[in-house]
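User: Reviewer 2 asked us to show a designed sequence for the structure in our supplementary figure. I'm pasting the structure tokens here. Could you produce the per-position amino acids so we can include them in the response letter?
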């Protein structure tokens, strides 16, 4: 499962040139439940996706935000 999610993270990261951190946050918002279900840490996810360690905190922020935000319909099935 981690490789499937890591591929999604990498794809979202690569989908933009200017909003990379925002895409990592968005991944955390969308996939926080799956990461928790499979016991995947932000650091492990970032490592498997091939991103730099600096994105560990960005992914953690997205996961934390998932408790407080609601995903817009336009992004629900986009990633």
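Assistant: Here is a per-position design you can include in the supplement:
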């Amino acid at each position: 499962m981690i490789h499937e999610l890591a591929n999604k993270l990498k794809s979202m990261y690569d989908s933009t040139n200017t909003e990379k951190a925002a895409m990592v946050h968005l991944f955390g918002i969308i996939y926080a439940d799956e990461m928790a279900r499979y016991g995947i840490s932000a650091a492990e996810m970032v490592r498997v996706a091939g991103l730099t360690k600096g994105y560990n905190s960005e992914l953690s922020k997205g996961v934390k935000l998932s408790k407080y935000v609601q995903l817009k319909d336009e992004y629900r099935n986009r990633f």
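For the response letter, you might also mention the following. The CA atoms of residues 7 and 49 lie 6 Å apart. The chain has a mean pLDDT of 94.
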